[in-house]
Amino acid sequence: MLRHNYDLLSLEGIPDDDRPYRLKGMLTEQGVDLLTRFPMLGGMLAIASAPPPGEKTSLLGLEFEVDPEAMTVTWQATGPLASLAQGELGKLKTALERFAHPIAIREGGVVYNLYQPPVPSQRLVNHMARLVTQGRDVIKPTTCTLQVTTRCQLNCYHCSAAKYKTRERSELTTEEFLSVIRQSEDMGIFNITFTGGEPLLRPDLFDLIAAVDRNRAHASMFTNGLLLTEENVSRLVDAGLHSLMVSIDDPRPEVHDDLRGMVGCFDTAIAGMKRARQAGLLTSLSTYASGEDVREGRVEQLIEKARELGCDEVTVFDVVPTGSLLPMEEKCLITREERRQLIETARHYSALADYPNIVAQSEVEGPDCAGCMGAHSQFYMTAFGDIDPCDFMPLTFGNVRDDSLETIWQRMRSHPAFVVHADHCLMQDRKFRAEYIDDIPKDRLLPWPACEELKDKANTPPVVKLDFREGCMPAQGKVKYKRLTPEGEVASDEAAAD
Length: 498
What we know:
The protein has 498 residues and is an alpha/beta fold. The chain has helices spanning 34-37, 39-47, 83-99, 122-134, 174-186, 205-210, 230-239, 253-260, 265-278, 291-295, 298-309, 329-332, 336-350, 361-364, 405-413, 430-437, and strands spanning 2-13, 21-24, 56-67, 72-78, 104-106, 109-111, 143-147, 191-195, 218-223, 243-247, 262-263, 282-289, 313-318, 357-360, 378-381, 387-388, 395-396, 448-449, 478-484, 490-496.
């Protein structure tokens, strides 16, 4: 058995006659006046006996007991203020047991979901301390997705980042990215996800991953899988990567290759996933589902493939009309019935012990779970520093080269679209799209400024007309195919499309 004890609030004796003790623990680190937040605390302190100098008296603690072999965990709040944390502990237990089964043991805690910290861990308990002190009405993000580069070897038909690419802007420097990571941690974010483009094309990626403070957050990464060589996988492990999400679009290798414009990229990505698993990385197969995929059982086929590979998890996004697919709303949006089928599929396979957990966007962003997470519990940053609600919503609320992350977050939170939390994905909401998305010019650089005040900011995306010949979407009747040479270089040729 592994036992973990965390100090949320305690009295520490100090050698001072005027003030014989001070408050210590994670609650004191949340930027809240505890005596104002918890009036009962003042009365308790008035009659409390000061501990001897250098010693502590616990007022609120958390105790966890982990059985690594059974992958189970029990927990309880302790101390005279235990009631303050009991409610959050109950919500955590309900959420974990409802949507997932244990995946692995990491850092002495149980991993239930690759997007969440192990239970327990310093970053999880720090998050709970924030909920206890600030409450759930004070909305702060828990997740950020950072696009580290727009560069990619592929030319995916459905790329959500295609319209962000431009040679007229410079990507953030290492120092600028490190500043964003620090600011994110200071805001309470515990999941920092690196994406692209292809993140492994950025030379300093390993330094950025290593810079994430594991006591406050963990680093995850989405990848196309083409550069998961033995050397790169080893470097990801050494840098401290928590989890890896490899994108696979279709269970049929030839269809995946066709959608991504590269012959052999399915087999290369699968081989990379196997290396990651062998190296001990928590690994997820990430995919998306169209209505046709749901009706023809391709989601189930990919789940079976993930089971065969030994993946820990499968993430299934709904097809969202964004990026290259922005103009294709009617063709892309899945129906209510198809969404219901996705949720049933996810629940069915997640309940099977010998299958990976299934994380379905339809369920996670639905009314029975988190709802729309954009500008609520997460934000997305482009490689140029633009802050958007999520990576599927092409609206920017500021740039980190102009304003602090906190300032931009507050600007986004105060926007009329996000004052009330939506219980569904807004990018799949026709009314939201009609009001905020449909009027964005189809041939312009994204993300689009969401506020008038941004138009005079120095680093707001310039008004640039995109050149589709360079590959936001394949030219009609002809598609550029790429091939990996034996040396790992990318070659391309023109071939008539089917």
